[in-house]
Design goal:
The chain is α/β, with parallel strands linked by helices and about 400 residues long. The chain has a single domain, classed as Histone deacetylase domain (Arginase, Chain A). It contains 11 helices and 7 strands. A 7-stranded parallel beta sheet has the order 1-2-7-6-3-4-5, with helices on both faces. Helix 7 packs parallel to helix 8. The two termini are about 35 Å apart.
């Protein structure tokens, strides 16, 4: 079963405006870079259709869908988080947003129907959208809709891992009391970054207590610290939860050059994250892995390289970090953005080696690791202070 890659240029229609940081050009540049590097050779790109109301209503309120449809006609004062600086109203907003949801649903269907074990959709990852309002550049929550659909189509336990710099609050909220979904979010500490949620003490509700996991990391955390925290928390929980599918939101606004946040990861760190997620899917989820995009606002230098690595990892066509950027891609970008300083290769030349948690040394991220393990691990029968757990 070949991995599924979902893409169509119609997805560029989710466009919040030329001056908005969530610019769809990042998707176009990613697909072009992946194509010119040969990552997409002989790959049939799957063309999505818009999600219907029946699917959107899995996680969104009817009155919210009506507001999204009416917003371009009504204007700016429509409520529901629409018409704000973060979520401006744009023409065809409902259709464009529903198409993003449809693209992630298509990826989910390919896995559920046994046509693929892995799938990737870089246009997805709108993890902030809530039941009745838009939030954080996100109108409809494609991640939550797809997970809900999967739960009704053969899956009883799904692990959602969010590596975006911002807390995966919309997905956590959708499944906060659902023990079938384990949500894990590693993000910049909410005291220092919007949306101000994602503390270690947020662990789920009722029978789902322990299935919401948050690792709030200090600003300026680099690749080794991020990977140290990830490996101190995630594998043990996956081993206990035994998911049937790994769903990952792979935002790349954790990069040190991203203008909207303050973590300090590199393209090399992102590549290491994707390889780790692939290994975890093979080890704990029967190889089933659905990856979507998310945030990322260094549109030229970072997003295309990082998400090309993501696509390559899903396809088992890993790109050597030393690979030079293709001349055709560089030429096209230079013409469109003549003042942009372009990287030379698919690497930032950063060291991603990390020391495992519990090695006796202290790292700035260890406060987050300890707080998260002590909040969640006992709920899974794990010892929070034992590095072997």
């Amino acid at each position: 079963m070949s991995p599924a890659v979902v893409w169509d240029s119609a997805l560029l229609g989710y466009d919040l405006g030329t001056d908005h940081p969530f610019n769809p050009v990042r998707l176009e540049l990613t697909v072009r870079l992946a194509t010119e590097l040969g990552v997409l050779d002989d790959v049939r790109l799957l063309v999505p259709t818009a999600a219907g109301d029946e699917e959107l209503l899995r996680v969104h309120a009817p009155e919210y869908l009506a507001a999204v449809r009416d917003a371009p006609l009504v204007g700016w004062d429509v409520g529901h988080g629409l018409g704000t600086a973060d979520n401006p109203v744009f023409s065809d907003m409902h259709d464009a947003s529903a198409l993003v949801v449809g693209s992630t649903l298509l990826a989910a269907r390919k896995i559920a129907e046994g046509e693929a074990r892995r799938a990737v959709n870089i246009a997805g990852g709108l993890h902030h959208a809530m039941r009745d309002h838009a939030s954080g550049f996100c109108v409809y929550n494609d991640c939550a809709v797809a997970i809900s659909w999967l739960l009704d189509h053969g899956f009883e336990r799904i692990a959602y891992i969010d590596t975006d710099v911002h807390h995966g609050d919309g997905v956590q909220a959708a499944f906060y009391d659902d023990p079938r979904v384990l949500t894990i979010s590693l993000h910049q500490h909410p005291f220092t970054l919007w949306p101000g949620t994602g503390y270690s003490a947020e662990t789920g509700r009722g029978k789902a207590d322990g299935t919401a996991v948050n690792v709030p990391l200090p600003p300026r955390t680099r690749d080794p610290g991020w990977l140290r925290a990830f490996n101190a928390v995630v594998p043990s929980l996956l081993a206990d939860f035994e998911p049937q599918l790994l769903f990952t939101q792979c935002g790349v606004d954790s990069h040190e050059e991203d203008p909207l946040a303050d973590l300090s990861l590199s393209v090399d760190g992102h590549r290491a994250i994707y390889a780790t997620l692939r290994d975890l899917a093979e080890t704990y989820a029967g190889g089933k892995w659905l990856a979507v995009g998310g945030g990322g606002y260094q549109l030229i230098r970072v997003v295309p390289r990082s998400w090309t690595h993501l696509i390559a990892t899903v396809l088992d066509r890993d790109v050597d970090p030393a690979t030079p950027l293709p001349a055709g891609w560089v030429s096209a970008v230079s013409k469109a953005a003549p003042h942009a300083e372009l990287p030379r290769a698919m690497t930032d030349d950063r060291d991603t080696e990390f020391k495992p948690w519990g090695d006796g040394e202290d790292d700035p991220v260890d406060v987050a690791v300890r707080d998260t393990r002590r909040a969640v691990f006992p709920l899974h029968g794990l010892d929070p202070d034992d590095p072997r757990d």
